[in-house]
UniProtKB/TrEMBL annotation:
EC number per UniProt: 2.1.1.220
UniProt cross-references to SUPFAM superfamilies, sorted A to Z: S-adenosyl-L-methionine-dependent methyltransferases
Domain tRNA (adenine(58)-N(1))-methyltransferase catalytic subunit TRM61 C-terminal positions: 230-483
GO cellular component, one term: tRNA (m1A) methyltransferase complex
Name this protein carries in UniProt: tRNA (adenine(58)-N(1))-methyltransferase
Amino acid composition bias (Basic residues), ranges on this chain: 36-47
Sequence ranges of Low complexity compositional bias: 75-91
PANTHER family: TRNA (ADENINE(58)-N(1))-METHYLTRANSFERASE, TRNA (ADENINE(58)-N(1))-METHYLTRANSFERASE, MITOCHONDRIAL
Amino acid sequence: MARAPRGSARPAPRGACTARVLAPRACAARPDDAVRRHRGGRRRRAGRPLERASRGPSPLRASGCSMRAWRALRRAAASSSSSSSSSSSSSFPADGKPRRRAWGTSLSPLERVRRLLPPEEAAAVARCAAAPPQAPPEEEEVEVAAPRQALVEAVSPRPGSFRAGELALAEVRRKHNTTLKLLCRLAAEAVLSSPGGVLPHRDIIGQLPGQVLRTSGGTRLLLRRPSLEEYVLLMPRGPTIAYPKDISAILTMTDIHPGDTVLETGSGSGAMSLFLSRAVGPKGRVLSYEIRDDHHSLAKKNYRHWRSAWEIGHMDEWPDNVEFILKDISTAAADMKSVTLDAVVLDMLNPQCALPVVYPSLKQGGVCAVYLANITQVIDLLDRIRSCKLPFLCERIIEVTHRSWSVLPAKIKHCKSSQMVEAQENIEEPPQNEYEEIHIQDQAVLKESKYNESLCDAAATNHSVPYIARPSHCQEAHSAFLTKLRKFRPLLS
């Protein structure tokens, strides 16, 4: 198709055809540019003015029907923009005037978002943006800050940290894989003395349990709260206590539940009373009889110290459910008539003297556990039950023993054969059998050395070493006999 010479006019049908072709291209900036693109002219670049001077006057304007073609082009563009999408309408509005380019305007991010929103939401966003920010009143800040400050002051010690007045347990590692445990009650002016130096209590107060602190001599101490078992073993004692291993068996044997009423004879140092207090709970009751005044006072003191330390350290109240009675149980028959016992624990020298007094108050099928130091006492107890025809059936007699073990990494030494067979010219050659014995012995030592070296190489490669497990050198020598008696109803003759 031959191009018309520059400056020549085109016939009207050609202009109408051009308007029809360019009508869908509503995205053009101006009709001028659309005609130039259709004719293969250069495209206009962003930010650069169109060079019309080099091109000469527009062909449509040079012709006689230029005005009619221009108006037809504008009408076609306006009609196509009204029926096209919103993107097309943004380029050619209904008035026919082209809008400014996007790069010709500078919009803020808020304005761009507002234009994408519906009219109602856009108006609300504009009102919020135009409104000045309001500062909160100072009175509310003061009211909020006051409770917050009070809360900070109330929990100034970290939750779970040591407080003055509670018990702390310090562990010191010693030789032969043993541990020394020290129990103390924290006070701001006191110090904790240990074989490796002293540690002021003020350095412990405020710290969390499980931390390691150093004494004045550089010894490391592991600080934590004691368990009830550790407190019973470390608390001041007068008579020999019932050990926790035996108390656990007694609690299992008697099947004590929360809310039960339990009788204990022989308060001693208060060890059994503490475990029974925890077993029966706040709704239960423990009656502890003791014949000696010093044992009675010591049991009450240990029980009171544990309760106060528990309330400080755990922010909870230990149940006050133990009644210490200074009286001989064999003379308390009148007291037993007013109570019904779910279980009985006898920890005394002659328990057979207490059985005739306590058995009427024990419920049918209830268990009486007797804690005895030797087997001869068990024999005397059973003989008294048989001779007095007491309604008790001996179900079990057990001895609770614990065996401690030590499990440690093995230390492998590099062993080398020290036996060398040297041939000497001036010494007679040994007989064949002796030579074989020496050779076999040397080969065995060499094999052992190679085995140890292979173990060391394997440990270095796999980052693991063999372990040695054996019973500990120090074992608990204390032992006791637990007798389980169950009350039954005798048959009517």
